[in-house]
């Protein structure tokens, strides 16, 4: 696909601010949002198919510290290819996550390959919460016990694909964003797990109509809390829930789920983000 694309680069963030504003920009409907590490700081790049208003970008930055905002038009550029070129392969535990531009290069022999085309959907393994959710899935998923799984807010589908490749027989993946649903479906086909992963657009906790042995949700604290009762209800006895997407200082998610009877098995704070693993014991 070739068309005029507009780029805005916001410079010199600390890592947590970079990923915070990535979330904000992504939720604001820009075509693509990515981040690049440069020495001791991070850059965030926005791509869109219409001119980007610097003032609107600055308004979204809130209290995050940054140094520069620069916008320009990219003439006659394959923006998707350009976005992928910024996506370097990532190793997370036993997984090797890479973009389509690297699909012809061999996956390390001791790793499980996941190809992710995530230019318009969140989830490449770069974000600390995605990183730690993948590790938690690898650590706590048991192929013999966990036959069914649920991925709430699937984004690019990377967590669903990881669970399928770990041996889960049926993964239900949902997102309220239709573009994420489209991208996730494509990625399940690319990774040859579409027969194991069912992706649908979730409007109001439709996922709760079934029961699951393993649940992962990498979303914000507010929706995690608002749907806590539905998540607890559809998690089977001795089932595992991996939750992330909130800051290390935020204990509201942990407190809400433990108040419903789930037991905290593990908690990890990484780059100022928290990931928790809970078990339903009754």
Explain this structure to me?
The protein is an alpha/beta fold. It has two domains: 3-85, Alpha-Beta Plaits, CATH 3.30.70.2190; 128-280, Rossmann fold (3-Layer(aba) Sandwich), CATH 3.40.50. 30% of the residues lie in helices and 35% in strands. It is built from nine helices and 14 strands. It has helices at 15-27, 54-61, 79-85, 128-140, 158-166, 178-190, 221-226, 228-234, 252-259, and strands spanning 3-13, 32-38, 41-48, 68-77, 90-92, 95-98, 112-115, 148-152, 170-175, 197-201, 212-218, 235-247, 262-270, 273-280. The strands form three sheets. A seven-stranded mixed beta sheet has the order 10-9-8-11-12-14-13, with helices on both faces. A four-stranded antiparallel beta sheet has the order 2-3-1-4. Helix 6 (178-190) links the parallel strand 9 and strand 10. Helix 4 runs parallel beside helix 5. The longest helix has 13 residues, at 15-27. The model has no long low-confidence stretch (mean pLDDT 88).
């Amino acid at each position: 696909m070739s068309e005029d694309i507009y780029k805005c680069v916001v410079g010199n963030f600390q890592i947590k601010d970079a990923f915070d504003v990535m979330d904000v920009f992504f939720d604001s409907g820009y075509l693509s949002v990515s981040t690049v590490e440069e020495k001791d700081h991070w850059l965030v790049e926005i791509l869109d198919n219409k001119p980007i208003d610097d003032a609107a970008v600055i308004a979204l930055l809130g209290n995050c510290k940054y140094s520069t905002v620069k916008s320009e038009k990219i003439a006659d550029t394959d923006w998707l290819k350009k976005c992928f070129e910024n996506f370097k392969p990532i190793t997370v535990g036993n997984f090797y996550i890479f973009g389509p531009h690297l699909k012809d290069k061999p996956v390390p022999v001791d790793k499980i390959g996941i190809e992710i085309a995530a230019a318009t959907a969140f989830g490449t393994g770069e974000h600390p919460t995605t990183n730690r959710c993948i590790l938690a899935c690898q650590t706590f998923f048991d192929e013999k016990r966990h036959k069914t799984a649920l991925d709430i807010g699937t984004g690019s589908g990377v967590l669903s694909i990881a669970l399928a490749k770990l041996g889960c027989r049926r993964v239900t993946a949902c997102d309220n964003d239709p573009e994420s649903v489209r991208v996730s479906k494509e990625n399940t086909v690319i990774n040859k797990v579409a027969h194991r992963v069912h992706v649908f657009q979730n409007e109001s906790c439709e996922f709760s109509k079934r029961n699951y042995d393993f649940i992962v949700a990498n979303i914000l604290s507010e929706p995690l809390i608002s749907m806590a009762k539905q998540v607890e209800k559809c998690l089977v006895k001795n089932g595992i829930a991996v939750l992330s997407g909130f800051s290390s200082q935020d204990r509201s998610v942990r407190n809400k789920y433990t108040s419903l009877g789930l037991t905290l098995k593990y908690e990890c704070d990484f780059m100022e983000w928290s990931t928790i693993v809970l078990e339903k014991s009754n």
